[in-house]
């Protein structure tokens, strides 16, 4: 089995998170975006790491729908 080389890591700065519920909401929103394979959200760092081939604008929009602000960092 070969690995896909199209797997990319996108880091998003997330503003507005203050608790575990926030982390869950951001995680769920990002996982709902087409092309997302894995998500790790850190409340302490205020960041989300997203692996996959998702469109950045779609990820930012999904987070915004939950009431948070996402800014791509790379």
Task: Kindly summarize this structure in a few lines.
With 74 residues, the chain is of the alpha+beta class. The chain has helices at 20-31, 56-65; strands at residues 8-15, 36-42, 47-52, 69-72.
Task: List the SSEs and their pairings.
Blueprint: E1 8-15, H1 20-31, E2 36-42, E3 47-52, H2 56-65, E4 69-72
Antiparallel strand pairs: 1-3, 1-4, 2-3
Helix pairs in contact: 1-2
With strands numbered from the N-terminus, the spatial order across the biggest sheet is 2-3-1-4
Q: From the alpha carbons, calculate the radius of gyration and give it in angstroms.
A: 12 Å
Termini distance? 29 Å
Bulk shape: globular
Number of helices: 2
How many strands, what sense, and barrel or not for the largest sheet? 4 strands, antiparallel
| Low-confidence runs of at least 5 consecutive residues | 1-5
How many beta-strand segments? Answer: 4
Which structural class is indicated by helix and strand composition? Answer: alpha+beta
The percent range for helix content is 25-40%
Order of helices and strands: EHEEHE
Strand content: 25-35%
Mean pLDDT: 92
